Amino acid sequence: MATFPTEILFMVFSYLSPRDLVRCHRVSRHWRATALSDSLLYRILDLTTARKPLTIENVKALVRYAGGDIKGLKMFVPTSTFSSGCFQMHLGRDPPQYKNHQNMHLEPLFRNLEDFEIVNTSRYDESIFLLPSFPANTLRRFVVHGIDLNAQQIVDLCHAAPHLEELSCGVDFAREMPPMVHFPSVKNLQIRLKGGMTLDCTMFWDFFPNVEEFTFSQATPPSEPSLEMKWSQLKKLTLRNVHTSIFLIRSNELTTLELSDLPNLIAFGGTAQLNLQHLCLLNLRNLRVDKYLAPLYNFASTLESLTFSSPQFEARHIEPVLADAIHLQSLNINNLRYTSDATLQFLHNNKNLQHLSVDHCTGITGHGIIKLIEKLCRKKGGKLTTISIRGNESIRRQTIDWARAVGVKVSI
Questions:
Q1: Which of 95, 115, 323, 388 is a plausible cystine mate for 72, CB 3.0–4.6 Å?
Q2: Which fold has domain 1-37?
Q3: CA 395/CA 412 separation, integer angstroms
């Protein structure tokens, strides 16, 4: 152990959880000295692996190891047993202040926190607002799992953390909406709408006017006639399980667009996208393909990854895109109807392609796979490394072995 290189040992320690890292203190004096040699090892803590609740001694030790400057924290919502008189909530012009005497020993963890991710395993959703020193005014990223925040709680959070850049949470707009306030610091917004609620995105672009990355999902709500993304500077947009029939985009700066599991969508449009790099169209069962997929051809040359799979999609809809997508690195066309070896020929000149997924495309044969690999393997100047073709019984073991020999992994 004494001869084990300190540099390698320190690199191994950087991958360990706080629980395992503290256990390494007991191995030897050399390991303990190495583990305590740099406070950076303790500035980002994942406490979800802890088997027991943190004691005041545990907290003091972690803060001491981190040099009093913990920047990132992931934890479960602490179990709290207290009455309503155990905390104080002051709202108004000043940032809200929350106190929970049951968990006061956790206060040092939140003082300089910039990245906070919390997981709720209880039914009491508002207990995070009773944590001492939460939210810290240094907070820049807040992710909460299993908790639905109402509009007033979101406003209070953003008031208390004026530098917040990323917010991810469930929302419940059943209560009265607070007065209009702008929070320009938020750039990345990830929202999950509570089941059974109607969609109203007005709050999002009114409260957060400078959003550049927006992720939105719903839990089986009522259908919405239309949805318009009004952010003109939006760069990344993800919609999952959203029950809207018409979808419009105002921004012309999109680099990432993901539309998946939108069962009611029949049309989408907006300004031309000249810089789109990542596109995912997945399970859009009612989309009118021939009319609304034509704009894809305009930005094919900038695409780096493409997922194109829905029951009504056919190979003829995507082949013109593949012919011009010379920078494409990842392609997923699983279950695409009428896909054949002729479809793969459109990829023969794409030397940048690294990953291809054509699961359940039974029209593709082993001969077509061999021809593609011969054109795009590393020996021919290409970058192709993996092909997934599950559900296709025509691919023989000899083809897989030959592909492995030339540096391409084929999965069936």
A1: 115
A2: Monooxygenase (1.20.1280)
A3: 8
